[in-house]
From TrEMBL:
Protein name: Smr domain-containing protein
Family that this chain belongs to: Belongs to the PPR family. P subfamily.
InterPro entries associated with the record: PPR_rpt (IPR002885), Smr_dom (IPR002625), Smr_dom_sf (IPR036063), TPR-like_helical_dom_sf (IPR011990)
Domain annotation Smr: ranges: 269-358
Presence of the UniProt keyword Repeat in the record: yes
Swiss-Prot/TrEMBL PPR repeat ranges: 27-61, 159-193
Organism: Salix purpurea
Domain of life where this protein originates: Eukaryota
Length: 369
């Protein structure tokens, strides 16, 4: 996290504390907004502390509150920060937690009628470092399952953000069986979303795609960031479990519906707003499209570009997770793109070189596999 952002979050935290000290009563909207901001900036332990404070004051968390916490712990293990009452921050590395902690915490969450045990669960998630790294994902998944059950028990109606959080968690599962277990939770919330996600994961059929179209129509009513987050989460899950054809269908549908603005032209593919799985699926679809242009006898533009950006979440300039994923994909396909000398987030090649590569016998299989 850059220094400027740390200072900004610290100031926001101090303003919130001054608000409380002045005797003004915070409501669920304000608490949820602050918790969401803390979670999005890696300040998870502080968010959990605030959730504890919120429930002790008798304010019931809503779907926004739960979504923020779920999403924070559904992400890959990263260095998170803790902010104190003075706005100062310190680093905390999230690793994994013991299975005993998970089992006990999950049971207590499901048994607790007031929902306060959720604070204990996530407090342990934010501080426990025991266990092996390869068990971390499954352990976190079990806690997330318990949270979903608590939301269902409290009759907290989920939204598209909740569904995206579930799909993101599925993408991180170590096995198809674990992902299927999480997907089953969608039955508690929305059978339509479950049917589409599970159907696409099992292999796209015509009836599944028709249901997907109906779901995408509903998602289109959301704001742009929420809509793109859902497409990214769904595509990541499909890509990570080998359903590359389904992933390509989803991103092409997103392109048709303009989910990602100005993502595609004959000369440039802009992946800035896409997740890793969605971006890789889009690269395949784009290359197949320009291949058809070549075989129709048309010339490609003189310069072709694939833009990934540096990665807005990178701590080091040029250290972009998305860029590395696309670089590995292009190398694996044998695609003749190289990093631009003056732009670390841009892959370039000449149209003539790419056209020659696309005409090679094995290129089509490389673009579809």
């Amino acid at each position: 996290m850059c220094i400027r952002k740390v200072v900004c979050i610290g100031k926001q935290w101090m303003l919130f504390r001054e608000f409380k000290k002045a005797g003004l009563k915070a409501d669920v909207v304000l608490y949820s907004a602050v918790i969401d901001a803390l979670c999005k900036n890696g300040l998870v332990e502080s968010a959990v502390s605030l959730l504890d404070e919120m429930t002790k004051e008798g304010i019931r968390p809503n779907v926004v509150t739960y979504n923020s916490i779920i999403d924070a712990f559904g992400r890959p293990a990263i260095t998170k920060l803790v902010v104190d009452d003075t706005g100062r921050t310190s680093q905390l590395q999230i690793e994994s937690l013991s299975s005993d902690v998970v089992e006990e915490a999950s049971k207590s969450l499901l048994a607790d009628r007031e929902g306060n045990q959720i604070i204990k669960i996530f407090g342990q998630l934010a501080t426990e470092k025991a266990g092996q790294a390869n068990n971390c994902v499954r352990q976190e998944m079990m806690c997330i399952l318990a949270v979903f059950h608590k939301m269902h028990e409290l009759e907290i109606k989920p939204n598209v953000v909740t569904f995206s959080a579930i799909l993101n968690a599925c993408s991180r599962c170590n096995s198809f069986e674990d992902a299927s277990m999480l997907l089953e939770e969608l039955r508690l919330f929305d059978n339509q979303v479950y049917g589409v996600a599970h159907g696409l994961l099992m292999g796209c059929r015509e009836n599944v795609w028709n249901r997907a179209q109906s779901l995408f129509d509903e998602v289109k009513l959301m704001d742009s960031p929420t809509e793109s987050a859902f497409y990214n989460a769904l595509t990541d899950m499909l890509w990570n479990f080998g359903q590359k054809r389904g992933a390509q269908l989803v991103v092409l549908e997103g392109k048709r519906r303009q989910v990602w603005e100005n993502v595609w032209s004959e000369s440039c593919l802009d992946l800035h707003l896409m997740s890793s799985g969605a971006a890789r699926a889009m690269v395949h679809a784009w290359l197949l499209n320009i291949r058809s242009i070549v075989f129709e006898g048309h010339e490609l533009p003189k310069l072709l570009s694939i833009l990934t950006g540096w990665g807005k979440h990178s701590k080091v300039v040029g250290d972009s997770t998305l860029r590395r994923a696309i670089e590995a994909l292009l190398m694996g396909m044998g695609a003749p793109f190289r990093l631009a000398k003056c732009n670390l987030g841009r892959f370039i090649s000449t149209g003539s070189v790419v056209a020659a590569w696309l005409r090679e016998p094995n290129t089509k299989s490389a673009c579809t596999s």
